[in-house]
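Query structure, 163 tokens:
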């Protein structure tokens, strides 16, 4: 009987833990959402870089839209499973820190890098220059275009909220 109660308690603890984690995520999103509605300067902060190289690859143009929190949420999951082993936001890992990347590179350049890093590393002068600082190259992650777009939206959010 005692054992059973223990099991019940630990299950409850686990559920509580998950509930708390989810809650935290939701809070983040809604506080960002609220920031967007109330404050035009934070909308500006979420803007992409418009001038500069678009890189080499299939993305040649990009439609600038207001920040999309739902898309950014899809992007977080992809980022964690496909990018986080090589990229952080506060330090260099296998690849460079992506802090502020939205202000350094155009969205086209970033998406081309995500979709076909091999072509970028061979043909784009900026990617080539960057690769000199890293011993192993970025690999192709087999992302679909919509998935790369979602990750980009997360980078946009992340780059704004860390400032
Ligand atoms: C195997 C490790 C690895 C993975 C996985 C990886 N990258 Fe990279 N990334 C790199 C390296 C290394 C570079 C630097 C260029 C080079 O040498 O290839 C780089 C460069 C970049 C750059 C250019 C950064 C700058 O400062 O201009 C962006 C943007 C980027 N990666 C985004 C991503 C995203 C988004 C993902 C996930 C979809 C991802 N990377 C997955 C290793 C990786």
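Result returned for the query:
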């Amino acid at each position: 009987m005692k054992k059973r109660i223990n099991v019940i308690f630990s299950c409850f603890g686990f559920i509580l833990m998950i509930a708390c984690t989810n809650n935290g995520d939701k809070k983040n999103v809604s506080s960002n959402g609220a920031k967007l509605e109330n404050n035009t300067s934070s909308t500006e902060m979420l803007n992409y870089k418009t001038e500069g190289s678009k890189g080499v690859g299939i993305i040649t143009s990009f439609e600038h839209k207001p920040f999309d929190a739902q898309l950014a949420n899809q992007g977080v999951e992809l980022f964690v499973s496909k990018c986080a082993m090589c990229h952080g936001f506060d330090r260099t890992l296998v690849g460079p820190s992506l802090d502020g990347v939205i202000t350094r590179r155009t969205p086209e350049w970033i998406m081309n890098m995500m979709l076909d890093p091999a072509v970028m590393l061979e043909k784009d002068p900026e990617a080539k220059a960057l690769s000199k600082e890293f011993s192993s190259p970025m690999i192709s992650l087999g992302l679909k275009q919509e998935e790369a777009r979602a990750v980009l939206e997360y980078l946009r959010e992340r780059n704004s909220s860390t400032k």
